[in-house]
Prior knowledge:
- The complex is a heterodimer.
- By secondary structure, chain A is of the alpha/beta class.
- Chain A has 3 domains: 16-159, Rossmann fold (3-Layer(aba) Sandwich), CATH 3.40.50.720; 168-380, Spore Coat Polysaccharide Biosynthesis Protein SpsA, Chain A, CATH 3.90.550.10; 388-478, no CATH class.
- Chain A has 17 helices and 16 strands.
- The longest helix of chain A is centred in the last third of the chain and has 21 residues, at 410-430.
- The radius of gyration of chain A is 27 Å and the shape is elongated.
- By secondary structure, chain B is of the alpha/beta class.
- Chain B is built from 14 helices and 11 strands.
- The longest helix of chain B is centred in the C-terminal third of the chain and has 21 residues, at 258-278.
- The chains are: A alpha/beta, B alpha/beta.
- Chain A binds chain B through residues 3, 5-6, 9-10, 12, 38, 153-155, 157, 273-274, 276, 308, 332-333, 336-337, 360, 362-363, 406-411, 413, 456, 458-459, 462-463, and chain B through 26-27, 30, 32, 101-103, 128, 130-131, 133-137, 220, 224, 226-227, 229-230, 233-234, 280-282, 284, 334, 336, 347-348, 351-352.
Amino acid sequence: MISLSGYFDYKEDIKTILVIAEHDNTCDLLLKLCTIKHDLKKLYLAGNSKKRLAKMVSVLKRTAEQNSSFHLPQITLVPYLKTIEYSFETPVDAVLFDSNVKRAAILSTKSLKPAYLIGKLWRDYVPCFHLWEEFRPVCRHIHMECIGKANKIDVIDWNRNSRNEVELSVVFPVYNVAKYLEQCIASVTAWKAPYVEFLFVNDGSPDHSREIILEHAKSDPRIKLIDKENGGCASARKRGMEEAKGRYIGFVDPDDFVEPSMFKKLFSRALIGSYDVCYSGYNAFYENSGKVERMSDALGDEYSQGTSDKLAIHKLMVYLRVAIWRGIYRRDFLMENQITFQEQIRRFDDLPFKVEVFAKAKSVVAVPEYLYYYRLERPGQDVACDDDRLFVHFDIFDHLNQEIGALKDRKLLDFLQLSKVQTHCFTLQKIQKKFLKEYCERAKEDLRANEMSVFRTVLLIAKYFGRDNLKTYLKIMMSR
Amino acid sequence: MEGNNKLLTIIVPAYNVEKYVGQCLNSLVKQTVDNHKVIVVDDGSKDEHTSRICREFAEQYPEMITYLRQENKGLGAARNTGLALVDTEYVGFLDSDDWLTPNYVERVTEELENFDSEQIDLIFTLPTIYDAVTQNTFDWYDKELLNQIFFTENRIVSAVEDKQIYYLEPNACRRIYRTDFLRTHQFRFPEGVKWEDIFPHFYLAYHASACIGVNDVGFYYRTNTSGQITAQSGKGRLDIVKVFRDVFRFAKEENCDWEIVEAMINMLNRYAKWCLDMSDLQTRPELVKKLSDLYRSLPPEMLKRYFKTRRNYKKERLFVWMMQKNRLRLLLCDYLPSELSMNVVNRIRRAL
């Protein structure tokens, strides 16, 4: 049964409730409702069997006679699925249903324009996101308990925000990407939901990217253009984040493209359970050969069913590849924890973002599909650099030492250390020989920060990584 | 005396809780019956709105709510300030980020009327845990125990008859107290320390001669609120040692029964581990040292006797043993008690 305990407390604007009674077990729900909701004026019962409804009414009446604290409102029976034709004496404030109710029955109550939609359903049988989309324009509050795999319950707890109608903002930092922009915009805007906004932040792009965006904005009002002076990718993302109005924020690099369903899948999964972060897998797209390669990482059951386990979330600090654009983030979560982008860090700004997000997120969910296409082998790409630009890592970790260090949590510092080991080991493989010595020296210093002893680091690497990283780590520490 | 026609006073200490205090006070003024008064003690709030919200409620419901403000002295002191002003037969406490079920006062009144002939000292209610992340609600940790104590044989129990009462959660807000009972024992909450609930838990249960339970109402306990990770992991953790020193001193002075001492050790072990798990890096070495001193000051035969009847409490025993040893305790500065098990040690060894 739906756990109503506490939900109706102090909700005085609910005076009339319509309960969809398709199944005998709804009787328990009615009994509970009448026990906890003492100010209920009127109760409509909608069901497909008159006999069953009559039985429920008699049970309610009998209980009311025996129990003085039981509140019996005025009850009216409504023919099943005829709710559109039926004329209601009083407007219905809330529609209530329990699991085992069919989708058509719930949808038929949409014309009543209830302020509340409250219920419980099995995710595999009733598409709850679809219900939410249908009822979003009419309801003020939607509270649905969705039962998923292994009976895990994720709650959609949505309240309409009177000021803004945007649920999801997608931010695009635009700089010299005219060649790829068409493909990107087409793939992203293919999902036609009205409650999305696409924010293109033009970071002083000298090519005609701006014109392309304006052209598309004419036909699609969801596309918005923000102009700013050139300041780097981080500053563009930051600006987009400040302008974003949505409940969730996503980021897309405009030289990449996505599956048309990507943001629908991410957003619907995040909404069911109000997760702080929702991410999917991605594909590497090799521009020259046209080859597509699936990049697999933490998409297993532990994450795809949603988790609020601290350790599992911290692990993502190192187990998830650095890729900000693969996920969406709850805006309030980012704001409350003051997670943003550092303008002074000119590249790899998604590394500190990732570490901070998974150090502070309270709940995370994964969509186990590969929905984003990441373009590789593009000339001038950051990932390809192998010179002293890589020293930016030390600025990044200086910043993280401060941010994560302030939380004074041993576990977090452990994972920060692992993240450092991972990054430095990876860099040492690709950096040019002439910078190797200096990088090693600075890495050594960096790995000693936060009072991390060699002993503890070795144990950590042994527990979470393999031998290769261990060897490289020891090499760094023994270099002079 | 004015106000004696009301049954219950609920004391709400408020300190920097502008986000939550509205919901808390709302749940008090919208109770299903009007049989209670409220004293809001503003403990020198420094945020923008807490004082204003409290004052507005007091102006709107002058019959029910008394508002007073004092310099910041801490939760225990704020509760004591409120306690001194109580003029009703019973008194309860509510933290300002939590809230009550709407029929709380109604149910408590009913239960007390049922036991009209008896003088009830303590009433235990059943709080509900609200997880702010998943929006799920859970039953309070000790629901089973509460039912076992109060709803199997006698409805009225004293801690002399049933020592299980000492194993209930020490939270002060889940109880309602008879005001005269508190005054006869000159009770005050410990001031200037965190963990102000633990000592009163033992002290009051020891003296109470009649307790009852109510298992369908209580307050909502908010957990997992975002944006305050660091809020509680600092120096405040150290107070736990001071609090338990008082508890064991009390046991010695009153020459308490073994079962009570057993419950005290049990709670010490639970809280010590939990505090270590939650303490931050800078506090932990000091906390370990102080806890270790406390463990070593306890008579060794006491701990021996405790574990004699608890053969399968292996982790707990490992923890206490490490605490008593001078060098081993240093390990606890670096590793959390919850990480320490043979399993983990073996896994690391294998990986190497």
